[in-house]
């Protein structure tokens, strides 16, 4: 009964504001050349960094795209080997091999970007708008004395971008008129990598080692790496999952969240949570979806017991299909949902678990 009831289609609306100018300092080079700041893990380039390459393609049809990798040891070498053929638009891979870049601390990375920019004179520098890019790019921009354009969701021209404001309730078009480089963070969910872009076995970009002989090591040390805590899971990564199942404060306890995890396992989905659920200690904060959490845009987004606070909607409103289950018929989540069911989630979830087939 619950699955048949999810049929009420509701509309979405996004407002677009007039173009606003962004800085006024000096011209950008005539020919575009872009540096993509890449994040890697386990010897592979992370998906958001590939989306950054996809975004860089939109800057100029003759754009020359270089990818910057940093780190040390076998993991870096494996990532470099992956980078040379990860996307046909990558024309060069820059590799900075040093123990100083073993962990993604803002101080050494920002200095590295400054060093590379001074040598290569790129017109644009692009990074994905995740914790990695948000940590590093603003500091690098300060060192280069430019102001970054953040959370870009659309590139109209090489200096004209669309970004969300007011927690995603409006889109603002900005034109960058500052000195180069134009520095961007992009929302990876808005620049999906085309399947044929990764099938490039014949393409191999050259690798160039970054000369670190003039790197200022004495500027490092204002922050210190302590440890990395992560949870092993067979479920897909929240930021890249095709299906996301999210729970809110309406689940009432961490124990009840286990029902949602069982549902996610049946659907082959990732598990997300609202800020209220995270603050209540139901789940760890790396599952938070929203303005202060992760931005997701899956093909299917299932929200159980989610009221629909503005900061949460900012992180999931670009989902292709949104299904909401809430006992409150007036919950704001229904205003953005494609399908909604007013009902008790403690009745709906068990029924879905019973009716849905096991994932093969």
Task: Describe the 3D structure.
Helix content is 24%, strand content 25%. The protein is globular. The chain has a seven-stranded parallel sheet, sandwiched between helices. A five-stranded parallel sheet has the order 15-14-16-17-18. Residues 1-15 and 21-28 have low confidence and may be disordered. By secondary structure, it is of the alpha/beta class. The chain is built from nine helices and 18 strands. The chain has helices at 2-5, 47-57, 74-83, 106-120, 131-143, 254-267, 275-279, 310-313, 345-355, and strands spanning 15-22, 33-37, 40-41, 44-45, 64-71, 90-97, 124-128, 149-152, 154-157, 160-165, 170-176, 182-186, 207-209, 243-247, 270-273, 300-304, 321-326, 339-342.
Task: Please describe the topology of this protein.
Blueprint: H1 2-5, E1 15-22, E2 33-37, E3 40-41, E4 44-45, H2 47-57, E5 64-71, H3 74-83, E6 90-97, H4 106-120, E7 124-128, H5 131-143, E8 149-152, E9 154-157, E10 160-165, E11 170-176, E12 182-186, E13 207-209, E14 243-247, H6 254-267, E15 270-273, H7 275-279, E16 300-304, H8 310-313, E17 321-326, E18 339-342, H9 345-355
Parallel strand pairs: 1-11, 2-5, 2-7, 5-6, 6-13, 7-12, 8-12, 14-15, 14-16, 16-17, 17-18
Antiparallel strand pairs: 3-4, 9-10, 10-11
Helix pairs in contact: 4-5, 6-9
